[in-house]
TrEMBL record:
A Pfam match: CarboxypepD_reg
Protein name per its UniProtKB record: Carboxypeptidase D
Upper classification of the organism: Eukaryota, Metazoa, Ecdysozoa, Arthropoda, Chelicerata
Classification via PANTHER family: CARBOXYPEPTIDASE D, B, PROTEASE M14 CARBOXYPEPTIDASE
Transmembrane intervals: 1035-1056
Length: 1124
């Protein structure tokens, strides 16, 4: 077989530009010439697309597969070369003047060139300095902006559009010996200014009118002056790479242990160049949203992150050479697009690079694959600002000879301009307060839980780049405001002919303050509304949720502090911990109670401090929350945080509105130490050892709980501490909780284990989205966790691994991180009605006492904000037709295979995210009730939804069926769980620090009953919307209307009577029964049923003769009926 491809491969590469061709050469036309032609020639025959595909399969089977692979895997540069500007256009007068001058490597020559451009184009460009180098050389730049021209034309205008324009910046180099970028930036400035001023190109005009462009030749002028022209591999000598103090500036941005940029600027140890840049980026350069650093030494584009242990040889790549490194930034897809489809789209010739880190000439990957580097500029910008940064490695030679500057400019100019145009991608807009139209600074814009957030600037403006035509769901959040979601938003698109970006109009948003939320999203709704306010007045019920829990929470937290001196600089041993708890209970006896849930192996009490406006009592519809600390004895941060949290809450009750509202509406339980024996064996300053981790029996308590995958070597014998937690979990109706650990910096959510026992395998719980939200609530309010970077207190021999440990948004699925079995959070979720996560508070497990204030500052806000999440979703009462509470009723949400249950008093809580839900409540002996429920937006309080069940056979939610003979397997399992769970309050007596906690459940239920009886039948609400006295009647009516009545109508219709004979004409069959196929009756004269039956009769006759066989079609024949 003769096989060849009809390819225009020899036409793909043009060693320069055709001067006569249009400068806007069509990408579409070019792509039609490359080897992916829609037609393939085989043996001289041109086939259709279908035959081409079939032929292509044979080509791969028969031809040299290696050569075929080479044709299809050719790098992007060779396949899709296009250009925006021709060679003549790129050789402008100003550009050629700069090129002929060679390198501008000292202050004088650089200043002359910059001043020449400023003097020539004063209405378009201005020079600026961001600071001085170590030797006092100015670090200068140029800002190109049409706003400067508009300001000159409208001097009297009160405001210009300057602040509203996005910014894009290119820096020529951070290493002094990367000299090519230094000149490229100058050439680019000259080219843009001359083209704009002369109206030489519409795309240049469009870009400069849309965005401000910042161009900085170098951050390292001292190193640049030391570098040597023509030195292509200065890395051997480090000639000019570092600054004058021999510091690599691209390793001086080590800010992981700082909370924000303002704290960074206070560092005295920063190099002057680093500090100057950081100061500039938060002031004059704050509008910058897209950033590129030009480099040499490789030909590649790299993006965050630069830190990793893994080297390039340890990674694999697809045909397009996309980075598959686990260290890639969340916006990997965007960065890959900028590299492959923007920059390399316009390379003038194949690079034929001998220094490329991959076999292909086109490399786009995360920077860590070029070698792990800590403290880089790129990582700093991506983590601390709204900027999306990349590194563009232009050439193998770090300092090419001056004679090559023209060819380098012609090679890269189109690509660099295309990158500048990328600022036009994505979605931009403004976020304002709906009540007064004031811009909201710091509003968070998210496009997915695994993506990086951006925030609005001082003018309420934001820019979120996405790939062209990508569809996203946008979530906007701001403290003190209801969140807002916009679905199916689409980014900018590219013109198929010119390659231009079609800029989208701004998308503006108005957020509603929580104080003005719609009354329909309040606590009560529907039929439950009338009784809600009445029953909540009872002494045994929780107070209505105050607005303080939802309005200006961050402002209230900012004012929240201790009322009395508090020692944050110390650790407290077991004896001191007990003394503190006892004293707090004695100081605040009306709102606190101290009780023990059991003892450790060595007999130490597991003390819990309860904080509530009525301690010792489960109040009707008041949810219960808990924190557990010190599960591992040597992880002590959580232990100290809970002592501080208890003191803060108790001291501020009655004075701080947020704290008062929280305590009045929530029953809070704090267990500072679950493992006091392990703590006794721990040592201050320990970073990551196992000393003190286990209990006195040497058992890891977080591997000792019963597990859904069966027994392990660590959970065969239940430890006393674990048994106490399990009993505690069943005795109290906890709704939400968290377990505080140490050793990393992340919020971890279920599931921890999977059936494959495989690390890195995401194992989602039925409430996965809810858990993601809960974990994000903690991480997003922590001062550093939300950044998703490694923790700041890295220590120990495993430091290198911790440096490489990152979690998007500071959260992780447990099994996706590493699998464990016998853990507390999986057991709690599967065996109780509580939702719980695990929070890792820092890498150092037992920090020095002097470092403890920082941990409190980092965690005070998230500890409280996380507790507030307990008031989200739905809650209410489950009663029978006589208004008596129903305990252990199952609350089922359709499409979520995880149920919760009512307490002994009949109240329940179900945490849910905003949305529409079908909620069903059931219990054996009662008929299931269904309700369609709308959960309000983020920031809205929980919705009150009551259910009344009438006695009778249990039925299932709509769309579900019971197998014959009884309940489904899942319901049997739920029933077994219900029977094992006792929602009673424990009775702890006999100690000075233990209040008598015997529950007064019977009295409370009696009180609740009196409220219910007082309100009569108005409480009864279920899917039928009928009162209790009509419950039995409704089923009889349903039976009549659904079964009996239609049956009678059908009989009347089918059977008429005239001397006991059926009338076929009444049935519409007369014509069919008395007409042969040749009668010529037009089908159009008959109804659809008659035409169908005639076709059936015809087919039957054709197959089996005049009368045919005894097929189903005979049923439609009157003759057949008569025979019967």
């Amino acid at each position: 077989m003769n096989c060849h491809l009809e390819s225009a491969g020899e036409n793909i590469i043009d060693k320069g530009y055709d001067e006569s061709s249009s400068r806007r050469s069509s990408r579409h036309n070019i792509r039609s010439n490359v080897i992916y032609s829609n037609n393939i020639v085989i043996n001289g025959r041109r086939n259709s697309i279908f035959h081409s595909i079939v032929s292509l399969v044979f080509i791969f089977m028969i031809c040299d597969q290696k050569s075929i692979h080479t044709s299809f895997a050719t790098d992007t540069t060779q396949q899709q070369v296009s250009h925006i500007f021709t060679v003549n256009q790129l050789r402008t007068l100003d550009v050629m003047t700069l090129i002929n001058e060679g390198y501008h490597k000292d202050n004088q020559t650089l200043s002359v060139s910059i001043n020449r451009l400023v003097d020539k184009y004063p209405k378009l460009v201005e020079s600026f300095s961001i600071g001085d180098s170590a030797l006092g050389r100015p670090i200068v730049g140029l800002k190109i902006s049409s706003s400067k021209q508009k300001q000159a034309a409208q001097v009297t205008a009160k405001a210009t559009s300057q602040d509203s324009k996005p910014g894009v910046a290119i820096m020529g180099g951070i290493h002094g010996d990367h000299a090519l970028g230094h000149e490229m930036v100058l050439h680019l400035a000259a080219f843009l200014l001359e083209m704009y001023a002369s109206d030489g190109d519409l795309r240049v005009t469009k870009l400069i009118n849309y965005a401000d462009i910042f161009l900085i030749p170098t951050l390292n002028p001292d190193g640049f002056e030391l570098a040597t022209e023509g030195d292509c591999n200065s890395a051997k000598k480090r000639s000019g790479r570092t600054n004058a103090r021999d510091v690599d500036l691209d390793q001086d941005f080590k800010f992981h242990n700082y909370n924000d940029i303002s704290s960074v600027l206070a560092i005295n140890s920063l190099q002057p160049e680093t500090k100057a840049f950081v100061n500039w980026i938060v002031t004059s350069g704050k509008s910058v949203q897209l950033f590129a650093t030009l480099r040499t030494g490789y030909t590649a584009i790299t993006y965050p992150y630069d830190e990793a242990l893994d080297q390039i040889t340890e990674h694999t790549y697809g045909l397009i050479h996309a980075s598959t490194s686990p260290n890639a930034a969340p916006d990997k897809e965007l960065f890959e697009y900028l590299g492959h489809h923007i920059f390399y789209q316009y390379q003038a010739e194949p690079l034929n690079s001998t220094c490329n880190p991959l076999s292909s000439n086109v490399t786009v990957m995360d920077g860590a694959q070029l070698g792990s580097s800590y403290g880089t500029l790129t990582d700093f910008l991506y983590r601390f600002t709204n900027i999306f940064p990349v590194n563009i490695h232009l050439d193998c030679c770090k300092y090419p000879p001056g004679k090559s500057l023209e060819s380098k400019w012609l090679q890269h100019a189109n690509s660099i301009f295309a990158f500048l145009e990328s600022i036009e991608l994505g979605i931009r807009g403004t976020v304002v307060d709906r009540s007064n139209s004031k811009p909201l600074q710091g509003a968070r814009i998210s496009i997915g839980h695994d993506q990086r957030n951006v925030t609005t600037d001082t003018n309420g403006k934001f820019w979120r780049p996405i790939t062209p035509k990508q569809s996203i769901n946008l979530l906007l959040e701001a403290d003190g405001y209801q969140s807002l979601t916009r679905s199916n938003l689409t980014g900018s698109s590219l013109d198929d002919v010119t390659g231009e970006i079609n800029i989208l109009s701004p998308v503006n948003f108005k957020l509603v303050p929580l104080s003005s939320q719609n009354k329909e999203d309040a606590i009560t709704s529907g039929e439950a509304g009338e009784i809600s306010n009445q029953i909540d007045k009872g002494s045994t019920s929780a107070k209505l949720k105050p607005d303080s829990l939802y309005v200006n929470v961050d402002k209230q937290l900012a004012k929240l502090d201790f009322k009395t001196p508090t020692n944050l600089h110390s650790h407290h041993n077991n004896s001191e911990l007990e003394t503190i708890l006892v004293n707090l209970q004695k100081q605040y006896p009306k709102i606190s109670r101290l009780y023990s849930i059991g003892e450790s192996v060595n007999g130490r009490k597991l003390l819990v401090l309860e904080i509530s406006d009525q301690p010792g009592v489960h109040q009707l519809m008041k949810p219960e929350f808990r924190y557990i600390g010190n599960m591992h004895g040597n992880e002590v941060v959580g232990r100290e945080l809970l002592l501080h949290l208890a003191k803060l809450l108790l001291e501020n009750y009655g004075t701080n509105e947020l704290v008062t509202g929280l305590i009045n509406s929530t029953r809070i339980h704090l267990l500072p130490s679950m493992n006091p024996d392990g703590y006794e064996n721990s040592v201050e300053g320990d970073c990551e050892s196992e000393k003190g981790r286990a209990n006195a029996n040497g058992v890891d308590l977080n591997r000792n709980f019963p597990d859904r995958f069966g027994l392990t070597k660590e959970n065969g014998a239940t430890q006393p501490e674990v048994g106490a937690i399990m009993r505690w979990s069943h005795e109290y109706p906890f709704v939400l909780g968290a377990n505080l650990h140490g050793g990393s910096l992340v919020a971890n959510y279920p599931f921890d284990g999977n059936g494959k026992k495989e690390n890195g395998l995401y194992t989602a719980a039925p409430d996965n989205e809810l858990f993601i939200h809960l974990a994000k609530t903690y991480s997003s309010n922590h001062r550093t966790m939300y950044k998703g970077e490694h923790c700041y207190d890295i220590c120990g021999p495993d430091k290198a691994s911790l440096l490489n440990e990152r979690f998007s948004d500071g959260i992780t699925n447990g099994a996706s991180w590493y699998v464990l079995y016998g853990g507390i959070q999986d057991w709690v979720y599967l065996n109780t009605d509580c939702f719980s996560i695990t929070v890792e508070l820092g890498c150092k497990k037992y920090p020095l006492a002097k470092d403890m204030p920082r941990y409190w500052a980092d965690n005070k806000k998230p500890l409280i904000k996380y507790m507030l999440e307990i008031h989200k979703g739905i809650y209410g009462l489950v009663t029978d037709q006589n208004n008596q509470p129903i305990a252990n009723a199952t609350i089922h949400v359709k499409s979520i295979e995880h149920d919760t249950h009512s307490t002994e008093m009949g109240d329940y809580w179900r945490l849910l995210l905003p949305g529409e839900y079908l909620v069903s409540v059931s219990k054996n002996g009662y008929r299931t009730a269904h309700r369609q429920v709308t959960v309000g937006k983020y920031g809205s309080p929980a919705k009150r939804v009551d259910f009344s069940l009438s006695s009778g056979p249990k039925d299932l939610p709509p769309g579900e069926m019971l197998p014959a003979g009884g309940d489904s397997e899942s319901n049997q399992k739920n029933l077994a769980i219900n029977n094992n769970k006792q929602s009673t309050i424990s009775t702890a007596t006999g100690q000075n620090y233990e209040a008598n906690s015997k529950n007064t459940t019977s009295n409370q239920i009696s009180t609740a009953e009196s409220h219910l009886q007082h309100n009569g039948t108005t409480l009864t609400v279920d899917g039928s919307r009928l009162l209790p006295e009509t419950q039995d009647t409704k089923y009889l009516l349903a039976l009549c209307f659904i079964i009996v009545l239609p049956g009678i109508m059908l009989l009347v219709y089918l059977y008429g009577s005239s001397n006991g004979k059926r009338y076929s004409s009444k049935l519409g069959f007369y014509k069919l029964a008395n007409t042969t196929p040749d009668d010529g009756i037009d089908d159009d004269d008959d109804d659809e049923a008659t035409r169908f039956m005639r076709r059936s009769a015809k087919a039957n006759r054709a197959a089996g003769g005049e009368h045919g066989s005894d097929s189903e079609d005979e049923l439609y024949s009157v003759d057949t009926w008569n025979r019967n």
